[in-house]
Amino acid sequence: MTENSENQAPDFIAIDFETATARISSACAVGIVAVSGVHIVDQFYSLIQPPQNVYDAHNIEIHGITPKQTENAPAFADLLPEISRFFDPHVPVVAHNPQFDMSVLRMASDAAEFPDFVYVNSMDIARYFVSGSLSLDNCAKEMGINLEGFTHHDALADAAMCANITVLGIRALGCETLWELLAKQPIDRRVYSELKPIRAIGGSWKIPSTASFRVSDLQPCADGAEGGPLCGKTIVFTGEMRMERKEAAQLAVNAGAVVRSSVSKLTNILVVGRQDMALVGDDGMSAKEEKAYALNESGAAQIRIIGEDEFLAIVGVSAAAP
User: Fold this and answer.
1) With 80 as the cut, is the pLDDT of residue 243 above it?
2) How far is it, in rounded angstroms, from Cα 236 to Cα 260?
């Protein structure tokens, strides 16, 4: 699909987001293509400045987007007019693993309001043709789509590839439109208003950073921590990080914090590492994080929820440190 034409009502749109951290609300790039027949008739791409322009090194390794590139980019809320114009209750939306992309759409901005729409997982279409991995690039390869020039984790390229997979599937299954395909084949469709968004994603890497330790084992800061960046703050850690949990906790103590093992209304900061998706619920959160959100939403606490890299920046340690 290489031709562009204007003023055509799309048969469907495809969307892809990239995020700056494990937090779903940290969108840093978006790509959208609108498809009519076999052609892309409209498209949109933008970098997005994530909250506080904070990134995890792991995410940068995936998509190559850096804080420098987004320091002057618009916030998600500023892009709403450009993004929302693609959405229509009569136009289905396709994404490759849409639970992620739909959650980003929902969580990236409290101001985000979209008409209700049906969304479809392009993996469910690819299953008819793909015997191996359902990753975006492998689906394209097994379905005979030209990968020349394709850059995985470029939001616009991923959206366009998702659209290509969908069009090829529609045609190969003897249909003219995505709506016809959904009527004829047992392909799951979901409704945006019924989405239960995830708030964080887990990583595939495993580092034994959650080894148990007693808070009493931590050494008090030798010089005292008066005036430290975390002076007077109560901090809790959850999830896996690149350093041992005890080491991270000691950094917090050295910066003036009081470290606790559980979240309460007295907690000021919760540092969230990558979660083991086998151990958390559908929302991607640990019990500590769920409790923090519940306390915040009830008004009982004002817990600042941050990632590992932001924590390291606060205590003055390079994010690249082991």
Assistant:
1) no
2) 5
